[in-house]
Specification:
single chain; about 220 residues; alpha+beta; 6-stranded mixed sheet; 4-stranded antiparallel sheet; 5 helices; about 25% helix; about 25% strand; Phage_T5_Orf172_DNA-bd; Bacteriophage T5 Orf172 DNA-binding domain-containing protein
Length: about 220
């Protein structure tokens, strides 16, 4: 992995600086964000994620992945939110892009809620949604396809529900750990659609297709 280049010493959080990142420091501290580029011949596909540091309150981490090639740059230490946009712009400059050219969406957070006695509980599913060279492993309640509309909002290219299987938070966690080698960042839901994960999804999709044919 490549560590993010140091910021010019002339830039300070107090003075401020110009950045193309369309997110305010308060946004970066409040939520995790995903930035996706439109695939192109010059810059390929770019995925950027930012998230508040769990250990350093008031600071933010980021990770940038450029495909093809899997070039990855990440924050070795947490940054003050005022500096994040400039850091990302400096990295993406090497790939012919800027933070402002990406489509940014807020990461989904699914707080665990205890069920209420007597309340109707719908089935939970773990889903695999592909987007370019990446795949998102998440969970939903009800129809797996219902997540596409929400995820598609703001995404610059089509997302496809590649496969799904019954499961909740526990099963989602197990899959995240199983395919950790393909993970874009340590605790995110985006993975590179390659290797054993790709094989797993293809086998699951084939199994579902056969089951559907028998049912028909």
């Amino acid at each position: 992995m490549d560590v993010a280049p140091p910021l010019p010493s002339a830039f300070t959080a107090e003075e401020g600086f110009e950045s193309t990142l369309p997110l305010a420091p308060s946004d970066l501290l409040a939520h995790g964000w995903t930035g996706l580029s439109r695939p192109s011949r010059t810059s390929g596909l770019i995925l950027v994620e930012t998230w508040p540091s769990a250990n350093d309150s008031g600071f933010v981490h980021y990770c940038c992945v450029a495909m093809p090639g899997g070039f990855e740059t990440y924050s070795k230490r947490a940054f003050a939110p005022h500096w994040v946009g400039m850091a990302i712009d400096l990295i993406l400059k090497n790939h012919g892009s800027t933070a402002g050219e990406l489509t940014w969406t807020r990461m989904r957070h699914s707080p665990r809620r205890d069920g209420t006695a007597g309340k109707y509980v719908t089935q939970e599913f773990v889903y695999f949604v592909t987007a370019g060279a990446f795949v998102k492993i998440g969970k939903t309640t009800g129809q797996p396809g219902s997540r596409i509309a929400g995820l598609q909002t703001g995404c610059p290219y089509p997302m496809t529900l590649a496969a799904h299987e019954p499961g909740g938070i526990k099963e989602e966690f197990v899959l995240h750990r199983r395919f950790a080698a393909q993970r874009v960042r340590a605790d995110g839901e985006w993975f590179r659609n390659e290797g054993p994960l790709r094989t797993y999804i293809q086998a699951l999709a084939k199994k579902q297709a056969l089951a559907g044919a028998v049912a028909a």
